[in-house]
């Protein structure tokens, strides 16, 4: 598993952890296009890679971040006879495939198959969205919206992660920050487009409009994105001995439980706003974009502070605040309260998504194993994403909103506790290094 193939929620913020060794590897590796080994650190071609990566994030994690809007529509209209739990499997499968397939396609990227991954992934996400517009039954939506788009996103995730860091040195953080913001922006744009168009032109054409937008952006990516260097060597896909380290093991446990609970409000806030908050369906559709807007800032500001405090030290309080907000969700039943909740939860949960990649770097003994360990961590995150929202839907059906909210909060509390143990276990190592 290569450094470039380290595949979040998620998520996309892996760009933030692009290691300095990428630049060193680039200087030792032949370019596929026989270009100079000198890193450009700017220029038209380099910034076009940022544009391409931004659009890939927008159409992978951005689509996943938009699923809450579709969840509400599916439950209220297209799949009204299907339970919330079954519907949320669609988004869970999509997110899980992005992470797990992204890990598996890493070696393909390392072997030089970037353009195949980009082309196949672009076709699958666009084709999946077009096919979703024709769906009338649950199995059809699962196949198109869940599996096809999920597989395509998994193919695109590695290119979106790997390209930018090879074109920049001193401007790397700024460039990668711009690219990573595409994930949250997609979670703002697509729900609004769907909410505005669906009542006017119907589900089919509203979804096709989104598919056409995706097609245009994917064509731009194919046109502008170019590989500058390939990794000098392949890395292992797994490192079992890593689980002998308590900090790393507890952190992965925290990843599993954190992602199990993290996306529950993202999937269900629209339904909650209409059923408990008294909102109209048209207004409830905007709760998800508001939550994603808060997440934009939650993926930038705490990351800036984490450079000074350490990523795990910043992640711990934000995870616990997210859990506290999940408990507060129980008492919120009016429109202003739900809006404020969406902003705050989006901010702090966005932090929980953005900081784990850099945390893995801090928990790794050397940069040579970061890529492998990142893939292992994302596997646990993917499993959490897969089961979390469907379980929440089953709880909602049998025990109502209180049970779902408690499940969300307890999962994030367990995640925070596990990461606290990881932090305490890491202290002796830090003292030994000092």
UniProtKB/TrEMBL annotation:
GO molecular function: transmembrane transporter activity
Main location as per UniProt: membrane
Keywords of this entry: Membrane, Transmembrane, Transmembrane helix
Membrane topology designation: Multi-pass membrane protein
One CC-aspect GO term: membrane
Residue span, Major facilitator superfamily (MFS) profile domain: 45-426
Transmembrane domains' residue ranges: 46-67, 87-106, 113-132, 138-162, 174-193, 205-227, 248-271, 283-302, 314-332, 338-363, 375-396, 402-425
Domain of life where this protein originates: Eukaryota
Pfam families: MFS_1 (PF07690)
Comp. bias regions, Polar residues: 1-10, 26-38
Similarity comment text for this entry: Belongs to the major facilitator superfamily. Monocarboxylate porter (TC 2.A.1.13) family.
Protein name: MFS general substrate transporter
Source species of the chain: Penicillium argentinense
